[in-house]
User: What shape does this take?
Amino acid sequence: MKLHRITSRIINLPEDYSFKLTASAYNFSWYFNGSELIIPIDYEELIIASIREVDLRKLKITLFSKRKVNHTETFFEEVEDALGVNENLKLFYDLWMRDPLLSQSYKSLKGFHLRKTKLWNALLIGICQQNASFRQGWNMLTLIHKKLGFRVEIEDGKTTIIPPSPEKIVNISINELKKCKLGYRAETIKRCAEAFYSNTLSEEKLQKYDEKDLTSIKGIGKYTARLALILSDRRYELPPIDRWLAKIISEVYNVPLGKAEEEWVSRWGRWCGLAAFITTLALDAEPLTQALKRIQEGKITPTFNENKITPLTLWKFT
DNA sequence: TGCCAGGCGGGGT
DNA sequence: ACCCCGCATGGC
Assistant: This one.
């Protein structure tokens, strides 16, 4: 499938917006190459946005699609929303600067904004993260995209991948899904796809989902539900406390494991989800033992090491 | 090699 | 409301 250029627009960036950080975090090479960011806007109609830096305070957004599109305004709005160019993080910065765990990373990560993704894709990310390391989880998602995703060509031969649709997942066998090294998570992804396909869940924006809607699917628990809502709708008030973060909280703030969530909520308030996300960036998503060691050594800031696979360098390795 | 790794549900108390 | 276990898989 080949897509054609529809239209372009230049937008201004606010202060403290880092395009490079925003585009880099937890991304694949088919979405970011160091200068051009691709964001699929509509998976079915195949609306794709390409975003480049014109200068430090300006971005150029170009829309691509398979055929002519009339109301491009809403698509530009969706791109800006996905990029988070209009979100105001001032109040969060006030907490970030002073926090014992995260203040060290403030300087290098300030300007990062979370890229929104579709709920369906957010759930795939969350499910792949279950009971697995960062590396293993993102390997699974890489395989899902490469083996099952839909490849599209954008004009001059560049290709990108749209995540497989719920319909596609519904129509393939569990064994086919398991080739993505998903293990028992394959069953959860299947059930999740069925929920989307049968319209129990859909991407309709009118509907605002909450945790309960998602945890009603077997295999989606509190953590995955909250993470998915954070990634798809910036529901930063939700604390996605997994074993990894719980242990870190209990060590750093000296509270029992069972009080970790309470502690996080009292520190971050409406910013729990964003703070959790940034914690993974600050520690390069190291597995727990390594992460705790990094904290002991006071190395709580991304390494930006060229040879290391981290959330911020993942796009170089896929 | 055996066991850990950003969960989860089911079954026990 | 807790606690505990098994569950696929890859990586060390």
User: Anything to note?
Assistant: The mean pLDDT of chain A is 96. The CA atoms of residues 112 and 291 of chain A lie 21 Å apart.
